[in-house]
Amino acid sequence: MPKLINRILLFSSIVLITASCKSYQVQATRDDLPVLHEYNKRYFDDAAKDYIYKANIAIYGKELSGILIFKKIDEQRHRLVLTTDFGNKLMDVEISGQDFLVHFVMEDLNRKIILNTLKKDFRLLLQKHYAIERTYSNGTTIIAKTKTGGKQYLHILKADSLLGKVDYVPHRQSKLSLQFSPETTGFTKLINIYHHKIKLKIDLVYIGK
């Protein structure tokens, strides 16, 4: 296990300091770092706001840029709308932990493999509650191991327990990374979603509420 931690820390050599709002239970360790048992991240959690991001998407050889809007509908669902910079709709979907409803999708994105991948990525991005199975620490960084849908994830956190990165690590290899960089509590200014085995990368920069 130490070898796994070292590899993850090496791969995550630049962990962005974050400031998302989380509720969690802790207990002190010998080096006074918290051991997380659970927490909730609160990105996209205000139903009164539209969270608007400049989006650059490289997906299976296609390049897209535009505006991606996240809107909380209720405690279970969010609506995501991707448009061009001029307001032409490219994708309009509703997503929850159980459902994925497509209102509209442009022809180039209307492929099963693309929609399934985006569904999984956005579902992980929007997931609020995480139950922590085990935590490790090197004194300045905390690695929290979780399972969602039977899949193992490593959450890379700073010593203050603020989330900077989520790695999907089947068979001890990083397959998918989500990286965050909030500037104030409750939302993240930068989001980077990167697949290591397929050609899919999403870069989001927050531009307004």
TrEMBL record:
Protein name per UniProt: DUF4292 domain-containing protein
